[in-house]
Specification:
The protein is mainly β. It folds into two domains: about 10-230, Jelly Rolls (Sandwich); about 240-320, Jelly Rolls. The chain has helices spanning about 20-25, 60-65, 70-75, 75-80, 105-115, 145-150, 215-220; strands at about 10-20, 35-40, 45, 45-50, 85-95, 100, 120-125, 130-135, 160-165, 170, 180, 185-190, 195-200, 230, 240-245, 250-255, 260-265, 270-285, 285-290, 295-300, 305-320.
């Protein structure tokens, strides 16, 4: 067993709101002009990532975890989650507005779907000048007020719509009503869950003239009707990790490098890097592994010292 920085084949998903930026900006070979999501690293059933590099190329990531759980996940992560990889990493391209939606918390998701909840965060990689993001309610509200506006198709009157630009960070706790607006290219980190309650879809129809399913009743007791502060303020310093989000499910830092940065860690947990600007390399045991904008790399827990170098911005994700 000799683990190394792992990369994966992206899983590309067509969406009614998808576009071409996963290709034109992130250099992914998309099959058509409506690709909304690239699942970068996943163990969601039927969407398990396949390793694309090195000795374990073409092996399922879940199979590697099953063979070497402590070495891949880390002793602390394995003790808490077993063989289940607890996070899901994506890039999303919103050519049009996504539906307005909400995700349930752990308790509700476990009860209804035998699943984790879906706490998540967004990093805006690129945005058009008029791009917007919907994040929660403008003011504290209630279920009755929400239902009234939903029926009257005036839900947007209640919701906080904020401008989005490159470098913006949003932390979305479960229960936060939200939507990515047209023109946003997003890096998303979330719990391993594919549970979404769609509450409004702007009356859109698909290529067959059908509207997508709404989850009106299921969403009612999943929603946090109070105003939340989802946008994250942070100060980036070159060659010094800046904490963006620190929650029970993951810790994300922005690592901006313009030279060589030595990283030392223990074997408690893995580290994932998502490159959101520039390019560079990771050096482990005198072997160099390159990365570029749009790449996602997992450093198994057994790798305790490595070097980052180049000119890049990286999201560094761990479980503390």
């Amino acid at each position: 067993m000799n683990l190394y920085p792992l990369q994966f084949y992206p899983q590309l998903h067509e969406r009614i709101w998808g576009g071409v930026k996963l290709n034109t900006i992130l250099n992914k070979a998309i099959p058509n002009n409506s690709i909304g999501e690239s699942w970068e690293l996943s163990t969601v059933p039927n969407n398990v990532s396949i390793i694309s590099n090195g000795a374990y190329a073409n092996l399922s990531f879940q199979e590697l975890i099953n063979q070497f759980p402590n070495e891949v996940l880390g002793t602390k992560v394995y003790k808490k989650y077993g063989n289940q990889f607890p996070l899901l990493f994506k890039f999303l391209d919103a050519r049009e507005d996504l539906s307005i939606q909400v995700h349930p918390n752990d308790d509700l998701a476990q009860k209804r779907h035998n699943s984790f909840g879906k706490t998540e965060m967004w990093y805006v990689v690129q945005a058009e000048p008029e791009a917007k993001i919907i994040v929660g309610f403008k003011e504290n509200s209630s279920q009755d007020i929400y239902v009234k506006h939903l029926k009257e198709k005036s839900l947007l009157d209640l919701l906080d719509v904020v401008p989005a630009q490159a470098g913006d960070v949003f932390f979305l706790e479960t229960g936060t009503v939200h939507a990515i607006g047209a023109g946003c290219l997003i890096a998303e980190i979330q719990q391993t869950s594919d549970i979404t309650y769609r509450i409004y879809d702007f009356d859109r129809v698909d290529a067959h003239g059908k509207m997508r399913e709404l989850h009106t009743e299921q969403a009612l007791d999943a929603i946090n009707y109070n105003k939340t502060e989802a946008k994250v303020s942070y100060q980036a310093v070159c060659n010094e990790p800046a904490t963006l989000v620190n929650c029970d499910y993951f810790t994300t830092k922005l690592v901006e490098i313009d030279s060589k940065l030595i990283v030392q860690k223990n074997t408690d947990n893995f580290v994932v890097y998502m490159c959101v600007e520039g390019s560079g390399s990771i050096t482990v045991d005198n072997l160099e592994y390159s990365f570029a904008l749009g790449d996602t790399v997992l450093l198994p827990a057994s790798l305790v010292e490595f070097a980052l170098q180049g000119n890049a911005k990286l999201l560094e994700i761990t479980i503390v």
